[in-house]
Structure formats: structure tokens, C-alpha cells
Amino acid sequence: MLLITPDSPLYLASSNPGKLREFSAAALARGIRVEPLPGFKSLPACIEDGNSFEENARKKALHYSAFVSGAVFADDSGISVDALGGAPGLFSARFAGPDATDDENNLKLMEELGEADSRSTRAAHYLCVIALAQGGRILCVTEGRADGVILAEPRGKGGFGYDPYFYYAPLGMTFAELQPDEKYAVSHRGKAFRQLLDLIEHPTAKSS
Predict the structure, then answer these.
(1) What is the pTM of this model?
(2) Is 49 a catalytic residue?
(3) Residue 110 is assigned to a structural domain of this protein
């Protein structure tokens, strides 16, 4: 397992500013730097055609690790709603179309849920899988999950994606109402990333 030092940052294979903010703040608190992969937008895109979040995360990490000498991590994450048979799932970021905005995706979600107002039918969970790779080899894979309920109306201005509608009962707030450190403590992405940081700081597990 690779030991990351302050002089050897983790490169994030994503152009999502929300993810970069969350990962960077969490890693910095533990003396690890997260930086966007140099020239990410100009690199050949990875085709995310896996059948699971893990397949896509592994594929992205391997693909982009070919362009830098350091360690690259990629996440694949999304939200699954029970009433929609697990949708949007793998298509969370493009639920309303290939170039859909967060607002458009949320509108699509509300349309799909229709008039459903039972909390049992609006049960949902976020899932995040993170893969770390270097030189074309997967070093480790971690996973995190957060369970909640989809509200009929948005609440809060923070977060991104479906956060304004994702109500987290233990704290009585949506993810968009939480402060960044509060969200990181309970979110799917926070759980997966803490596991990754633990493996980097204490490399006792075998590489995947």
C-alpha cells in the first residue's frame, strides 16, 4: 500500500468542484493534500459503462492513473430511491440527460416520484465507492453508504446534487442544511474517504 506524504498529493480524477471541496478539506485536516488531476478536462475521457459503482470507480482510477506518476483516486456515487426501483442509481449525475444540471436532475426526481408522500416509499440511500490507483494498478477500494428520505420540497443551500432533498433523520436535516464538517461525518462520501485515508496512514491491508 502506498504511503502518501505532504510532498506527494492524491490526485482526484473529477472536475466536480463540490467533490474537490469535500475531499480537500477532509484530507488537509490529516496532513494530506488532494489536488485535481493536472489537465483533467483535456485528457481522454473514461467511458463509465460499468454495471456498478465499484466497476466505474475502478475503471476511472485505472484510466487516469496512466497520465500521472502519483496516486489517483476516483469515486463513483449516486442516490437510489426505493420507490423508483433503485433509480437514479448509476445515472444519478445524468438522470435528466447527459448534460443535466443539479436542478434538472432534482426536477426529474420529483416528477418520477409524482404524488408519493409516504416516507416508506421515499426511502433512499446514497452510495459512494472510491478506488485508488497508481501506474495502472488498483491499490485499494472503499465504500460508504448513507440512508435517508427524499423530501417533497428542498431545504438548505449547501451541498450539491440531490442534497437539498435528502433528509437525514438522525440529525433532523437535509444534507444541504448541514455544515461541511457535519455532512462529511455522516455522508456516504465521507465514510468512504475516511476509510481511504485510514489505509493510506496505516497501510496494513493488502492491495485490491
Answers:
(1) 0.90
(2) no
(3) yes
Give a yes or no: residue 5 inside a domain: no
Cell of 56: 466505474
Range of the domain at 183: 10-201
The count of domains in the chain is 1
Find the CATH number of the domain harbouring 20.
3.90.950.10
Q: What region does 156 belong to: left with phi over 0, alpha with psi -120 to 50, or beta?
A: left
Tens digit of pLDDT per residue, the chain (208 long)? 455 665 688 999 998 888 898 899 899 988 899 999 999 999 999 999 999 999 999 999 999 999 998 999 999 999 999 999 999 999 999 999 999 999 999 999 999 998 655 556 799 999 999 999 999 999 999 999 999 999 999 999 998 999 999 999 999 999 999 999 999 999 999 999 999 999 988 765 444 4
Q: Is residue 206 part of a domain?
A: no
- The residue from 7, 49, 75, 76 that is catalytic is 76
